[in-house]
Write a structure and sequence with these properties.
Length: about 240
C-alpha cells in the first residue's frame, strides 16, 4: 500500500487563464499546484517568474500549496522574491548551483509559509506556519549519489522523469531505480516525480516510493481533469 499527493503542473494549461486554471485544478481534487519556472537558460524554454506567482496567489487565496520548480540558472536570485510572492516550497536544481548547502540555508530562512500539503513530513511538525520547505531536483543525467549528501537537509527530492523544459514528453521509466534507492535510504523524505506521469505510468512511481506526483498534460489537457485526478488518486491510495 502506498499513498501520494497529486500536484498538477499548469505548464500545459491556457496560460492566459492561469488563475482560473489553478482554481479549476484545486476544485478538481488536486492536493497541491506544481509551478514550473523556466528562464530560457537552464532550460530551452521560458515560462513565468515571481510577478506571475504573486498574481496567482492573489487569485487563489492562501490555501493552495505552491510547489515552485525552479528550472533556472541562478536559483539563489529568486528565493526572496518567491517568498514574498507567496510560494510555499522552493525546489532548485542541483545542476544549477555550486553551493547547495548555502542555498538550502537561505531557502530555510526565507519565511515561506508552510501550508497543507505533505503533512507527513516529520521535520515540519514543529512549527508549520514558519517552516519553509526545501526541494532539491535532479535531471535525468544526474545520479542519486550526487543528491544523497544533501538528503537529510531537504524536505523533498525531485527526480525528473523527463529532460526539463517542456510538458507532454515521454516518461523515463529508467529513472525509477533512483526513486527506489532514495526511498530505501531516506524513509521519511518526500520524493516527487515530474514528467510524463499520468494514469499509465503513475503506478510505477508509487511502487518505487514516490509520494508527491506531478502530472501536467495528462490532467490539464484532459476534457475531464476531475476524473483523471480521481483515477490517479485511486492508484496511489490502494
Ligand atoms: C517539465 C516540467 C514538468 C512538466 C510536466 O520541464 O518540469 O513539470 O510540465 O508535464 P507533463 O506531465 O506533461 O510531462
Ligand atoms: Zn516541473
Amino acid at each position: 500500500a502506498y499513498t501520494a499527493k497529486i500536484g498538477p503542473s499548469i505548464l500545459s494549461s491556457d496560460l492566459s487563464q492561469l488563475g482560473r486554471e489553478c482554481e479549476r485544478m484545486m476544485e478538481c481534487g488536486a492536493d497541491y499546484l506544481h509551478l514550473d519556472v523556466m528562464d530560457g537558460h537552464f532550460v530551452p524554454n521560458i515560462t513565468f517568474g515571481h510577478p506571475m506567482v504573486e498574481c496567482l496567489r492573489k487569485a487563489v487565496g492562501p490555501n493552495p500549496f505552491f510547489d515552485m520548480h525552479m528550472m533556472v540558472s541562478r536559483p539563489e536570485q529568486w528565493v526572496k522574491p518567491m517568498a514574498a510572492a507567496g510560494a510555499n516550497q522552493y525546489t532548485f536544481h542541483l545542476e544549477a548551483t555550486t553551493n547547495p548547502g548555502n542555498l538550502i540555508k537561505e531557502i530555510r530562512e526565507s519565511g515561506m509559509k508552510f501550508c497543507k500539503v505533505a503533512d507527513k513530513c516529520p521535520k515540519s511538525k514543529a512549527n508549520r506556519s514558519s517552516y519553509t520547505r526545501v526541494g532539491l531536483a535532479i535531471k535525468p543525467g544526474t545520479t542519486v549519489e550526487e543528491l544523497a549528501p544533501w538528503a537529510r537537509q531537504i524536505d523533498m527530492a525531485l527526480v525528473m522523469t523527463v529532460e526539463p523544459g517542456f510538458g507532454g514528453q515521454r516518461f523515463m521509466e529508467d529513472m525509477m531505480p533512483k526513486v527506489n534507492w532514495l526511498r530505501s535510504q531516506f524513509p521519511s523524505l518526500d520524493i516527487e516525480v515530474d514528467g510524463g506521469v499520468g494514469p499509465d505510468t503513475i503506478h510505477r512511481c508509487a511502487e518505487a516510493g514516490a509520494n508527491m506526483i506531478v502530472s501536467g498534460s495528462a490532467v490539464v489537457s484532459s476534457s475531464d481533469p476531475r476524473s483523471v485526478i480521481a483515477l490517479l488518486k485511486d492508484v496511489v491510495l490502494e
